[in-house]
Amino acid sequence: MTADPTDRPLRFAPTVRLLHWAMAVMVIAQLLVGAVMVTTLDHYHLLRSVHVPLGAAILALVIVRIGNRLVRRAPAPPSTMRPAERRVATVSEYLLYALLVIQPLTGWAMLSAGGYPIILYQHLHLPTLIAPDPSVYALLRQAHTAFAYLLFFTFTAHMSAVLFHVLVLNDRLLDRMAPWRTRRKSSPTSSRPAPARIVDDIVAEQD
């Protein structure tokens, strides 16, 4: 099915788009740091000092995202998406939200069960969630690893689906969340730098 060139879905608010892409970068960085941590002992403490506050930041931001999602409906998907595709997209979105909450919480609980301090920055610590317990620590460590793999596959599937819509179906699905509008035809602003186009779009949406 070919998309109508005029079929342009409504967009998420600029702040939501900014939060979305910031979290995407953070999640990719977190997965990479976590993978290096479990495959090598080199610089382990340095990596953990990055991993813990980054996980806390992701948890805080995803709570904001969920709150925003509950009070504001998402823009309508393009007409090229069949009902079954929309249901799959909705389920995958909810799964991503759930994993982005569960994964930091299991890491937090795991460190608590292991008796490790949860350091955000220097003397700024998070409270422990549970009492130290080696058996619980081992269980939570396995759960944290399993959820990390599930998050990786879900995140990859999400990106692959978006690329399929953009490169194959050409239905402009990405426009809903893109930092700036993609333009099929040349326009006076099409040659402007990306940051300038972002500002142009934000200003236009306020009018």
TrEMBL record:
Membrane topology annotation: Multi-pass membrane protein
Taxonomic superkingdom: Bacteria
Disordered: annotated segments: 183-207
Cytochrome b561 bacterial/Ni-hydrogenase domain: residues covered: 11-179
Primary residence: membrane
Subcellular location per the Swiss-Prot or TrEMBL entry: Cell membrane
Listed InterPro entries: Cyt_b561_bac/Ni-Hgenase, Cytochrome_b561_oxidase, Di-haem_cyt_TM
Keywords, sorted A to Z: Cell membrane, Electron transport, Heme, Iron, Membrane, Metal-binding, Transmembrane, Transmembrane helix, Transport
Pfam families assigned: Ni_hydr_CYTB
MF terms (GO), sorted A to Z: electron transfer activity; heme binding; metal ion binding
Low complexity compositional bias, start-end: 187-197
Gene Ontology annotations of biological process type: respiratory electron transport chain
Keyword Ligase: no
GO terms for cellular component: plasma membrane
Transmembrane segments: 18-38, 50-67, 88-111, 146-169
Homology family: Belongs to the cytochrome b561 family.
Name assigned to this protein: Cytochrome B561
Organism: Rhodococcus opacus
